[in-house]
Specification:
By secondary structure, this protein is α/β, with parallel strands linked by helices. Helix content is 51%, strand content 11%. The C terminus is likely disordered.
């Protein structure tokens, strides 16, 4: 017999578990998800069991039953009933839930799907007296149900965000004991000393963020996709005590720089100098804490890139070939891939670039595009021939696949990174050109190609190495040390193939013991409201504009990380940003921390009171400790957005605890009540101190402000994030805090509406039509008899009130659209908005347009 399984398929867990349990001898073969092993089926399936008779079983439960049968264990009626329930009730719910979490990021909705089958399972189990489902020994039913639930139970991120943690009395007491131990014998704060180098016995983490292209000012999507996500993880790693180096820099070579220089009347180097400074300034404002932010236009870049080139050449991994390229006769230059657009030959997407289609993700040679256009002048380019060098990817494919299997299985690769990489390998690798007929780039050192430069995809990733080399002469201790160094790459999904396939092939072919990526973290795309960012159209917030909004960088960081596009594309929304700021930051987080500190100042003369814990206090401490452990588990796996929810949960627990115990009332009572108020206040201010620690990777300024107000010990952050996490009493009785003040400010509707209009570019056509219609309606009203009298009778207070209601309802509608709620809900809220607008028009003395005309304007 032979069992065919595929990687990552939850159905295969059942068959493998039963095979292990029964001891049946059977060969196992891992197949791809696209491979068909059952001849008469039109689609691929797994698992598949090939029987000695040549027949195939491809139902997971049938395979499990068969293996139990051949092992001599008969199935009972009760077992068959459980298998039937699992197949018809449990498994569909599990698959739907997994789909909602993995592809849509809907954790709460996924939990709701599982509620009914899990409740039924709980009720059934509570009525049984046997150790297992059907008997005192394990049956196939136990294995099948466990395997069905395994994907949900093994990943903490799949648990609903609002689930309460149920803990035993022993767990609560243990958490309280750890808390009571305080900061004794905790590790000291580790100061960064440059240059940071790998250390024996330490976890040495090398962290890179995709190099931003120098001639583009980064927008919010660029910032969250690369540098901000990497910064959160870098700050977290340092708090955990890892020996971590975080490097990045501007990617400065290529045709785009030449064209930008021509536009601005500068040399390419002057353009690079100008925009490198702009990038550095933007990231500094966003508090991106690089250990070194460099650039690719350096001597070390040329030196290292040419060394890798020669090593590839000497080992036979480069090919020569004559290729056809697109040349724009109007611009008098060969067109770089990203400066030509056309129709994708594979999926027919009309705006495919000359190197890759953003829709289907497949690589393209520019000459394969249909109806190509030069992006600079919009003329149709012509095809010309030129001799170039290619990296022989097919020759390196076997070694690449071996390395990928090890890296993906042992490291943390996001789902989209794994999928994109596998799709490249599935299609088969082809030689990839590494030279270009350009002037601005790293020169090719080969005599026959001295007029050419390296193609940016080959050259730019080497920038990670050269930037590190400009940071320290001992750069090879990081980049030629795979035994000691763990490499994390952060990027948006369009950069994945160059980091998972092409660049690793260059380093593998160089055969110089290079450090290859262990963990590849890729985001989906962040859009702006309901469209894309566009500098030319004035749509969206770009990095150099954010600081001019008056909103602190920590609030920007929080909101971008709150909607970080981890499993699917997400959209920035001004209305939603205001909601999150006012509800999560102001009312939840800020309200709790401020009240905790104010109670110490007002009721206890600025000194933390004595804390005599009862069961309620211990339960709160245990709940907070559980959230802290979840936070660490998630961030260890680079689940940045989910870990942020744990911070907000801690604050919610604190707020609920404070509301239930009402220390502001008990402080006015007798001695027992005053002592109780002191305990509650002391516990709360310690929860606030923990919040300062877990907030540091996300909101560093707010984190430091909280600690300064509480005058918290320097070790409070790092001490509580060691190991699996420990919530300890960092502010003991008698500790004096500083001056407490509010952390956040409300974002008002008027402010948000003004920002939305400012960054909205040209008004959408519907809004323009509506504005014109209202204008013409107003004009017609003025010509009607009695109109002037009607305007004289308007109520200014009512107009003001209705204007405010319209603005609030408009924000609500935009927020609902951004959250992609059900259409019926949006329709209902839009109807309310239209009714309010109608009332406002009447209050202003205008005649509102009939609703029936909407949508019929031409």
């Amino acid at each position: 017999m032979k069992l065919y399984i595929s990687e990552g398929n939850p159905h295969c867990i059942k068959a493998l578990a039963v095979l292990e349990l029964t001891g049946v001898k059977c060969d196992i073969e891992v197949i791809s998800h696209e491979e068909k092993v059952v001849p008469h089926l039109s689609r691929p399936v797994s698992p598949v069991l090939l029987l000695p008779s040549g027949q195939h079983l491809f139902s997971p439960n049938s395979i499990c039953q068969y293996l139990y049968d051949v092992s001599g264990q008969a199935l009972t009626d009760a077992t068959r009933q459980w298998l039937e329930w699992e197949a018809t009730n449990l498994q569909p719910a599990v698959l739907q839930s997994l789909h909602m979490v993995a592809l849509q990021g809907k954790r709460v909705e996924a939990a709701a799907v599982m509620k009914e089958p899990l409740n039924w399972l709980e009720q059934s189990l509570s009525k049984r007296s046997t150790a297992f489902l059907t008997a005192e020994v394990m049956s196939v039913a136990d294995v099948v149900l466990w395997a069905a639930l395994f994907p949900l139970l093994s990943d903490t991120s799949l648990k609903p965000a609002d689930d309460e943690c149920v803990m035993s009395v022993e767990e609560v007491e243990a958490a309280a004991q750890v808390w009571a131990d305080g900061l004794r014998a905790r590790s000291a704060v580790i100061e960064r000393k440059h240059p940071i180098l790998p250390q024996e016995g330490k976890r040495n983490v090398l962290l890179t963020s995709a190099l931003p292209y120098v001639n583009n000012v980064p927008h919010l999507g660029n910032i969250i996709g690369c540098v901000l996500s990497a910064d959160v993880f870098a700050r977290y790693g340092r708090l955990r005590g890892w020996n971590l180096l975080f490097v990045c820099g501007t990617d400065e070579y290529g045709t785009a720089t030449e064209n930008k220089a021509r536009e601005e009347g500068l040399t390419p180097q002057e353009i690079c100098d100008k925009y490198h400074t702009i990038h550095a300034s933007i990231y500094q404002w966003f508090q991106i804490d690089f250990d070194f932010f460099g650039r690719t236009t350096t001597e070390r870049q040329t030196e290292i890139a040419q060394d890798i080139f020669w090593r590839l050449h000497e080992r036979g991994f480069l090919l020569e070939d004559t290729v056809e390229q697109l040349r724009c006769e109007s611009c008098q230059r060969f067109l770089a891939d990203r400066f030509v657009e056309g129709v994708c030959p594979h999926c027919h997407y009309p705006e495919a670039r000359g190197d890759q289609c953003d829709k289907c993700g497949r690589l393209i040679n520019a000459v394969e595009l249909r109806s190509p256009q030069c992006k600079v002048c919009k003329e149709t380019p012509v095809i010309r021939s030129s001799k170039h060098l290619f990296l022989d990817l097919p020759k390196l494919e076997g070694e690449l696949e071996q390395w990928l299997e090890k890296s993906i299985s042992s490291g943390d690769w996001t789902a989209n990174a794994r999928h994109i990489t596998r799709s490249w390998l599935r299609d088969g690798l082809k030689p990839r050109c590494i030279t270009r007929d350009l002037r601005w780039g790293t020169p090719v050192p080969h005599q026959d190609f001295k007029e050419k430069v390296f193609y940016v995809w080959f050259d730019a990733p080497i920038g990670y190495l050269s930037i590190t080399a400009n940071y320290t002469d001992q750069w090879e201790k990081w980049w030629k040390n795979p035994q000691q160094v763990e490499l994390y790459n952060f990027m948006a999904k369009d950069n994945v193939p160059f980091h998972s396939v092409v660049f690793p092939c260059s380093l593998l072919g160089a055969q110089d013991n290079y450090t290859l990526v262990n963990n590849l973290i890729a985001t989906e795309y962040l859009n702006y409201e309901d469209t894309k960012f566009s500098k030319s159209r004035g749509v969206g917030v770009f990095g150099d504009m954010a600081k001019d909004t008056g909103i602190p960088s920590d609030v920007w960081r929080f909101y971008l990380l709150f909607l970080r596009p981890e499993a699917q594309d997400s959209a920035f929304s001004w209305a939603d940003m205001a909601i999150k700021n006012n509800s999560e930051l102001l009312n939840n987080l800020g309200n709790f921390i401020n009240r905790a500190g104010m109670f110490v100042s007002k009721f206890f003369d600025g000194c933390v009171p004595e804390m005599l814990l009862n069961d309620d206090d211990k339960r709160l401490i245990a709940q907070v400790c559980w959230e802290l452990k979840q936070y660490i588990t998630l961030l260890d796996k680079v689940r940045i957005r989910d870990a942020l929810k744990c911070i907000l949960n801690i604050s919610r627990h604190g707020n609920q605890y404070m509301q239930v115990n009402e220390p502001w009332k008990k402080i006015k009572g007798g001695d027992d009540d005053r002592r109780r108020a002191g305990t509650v206040t002391g516990v709360c201010v310690n929860v606030a101190c923990l919040l300062s620690a877990v907030l540091e990777p996300y909101m560093p300024t707010v984190s430091h402000t909280i600690r300064a107000q509480l005058q918290a010990p320097p070790t409070c952050a790092s001490a509580q994030l060691q190991g699996s996490g420990s919530f300890v009493c960092t502010l003991a009785a008698g500790h004096r805090i500083g001056t407490v003040s509010p952390l956040f400010q409300k974002l008002e509707n008027e402010q948000i509406e003004a920002l939305r209009k400012r960054f909205g570019g040209q008004q959408p056509e519907e809004e323009c039509v509506e504005a014109k219609t209202q204008s013409s309606s107003s004009a017609s009203v003025e010509t009607k008899p009695g109109a002037s009298q009607q305007n004289l009778n308007t109520d200014p207070e009512r107009v003001k009130h209705l204007t405010s209601l319209v603005a609030e309802q408009g924000d609500k509608v935009r927020a609902l659209k951004a959250q992609k709620v059900e259409k019926s809900v949006i329709v209902e809220e839009v109807a309310k908005l239209l009714e309010l607008k109608k009332q406002l028009s009447l209050a202003e003395g205008k005649t509102p347009e009939p609703a029936a005309q909407k949508g019929k304007k031409k």
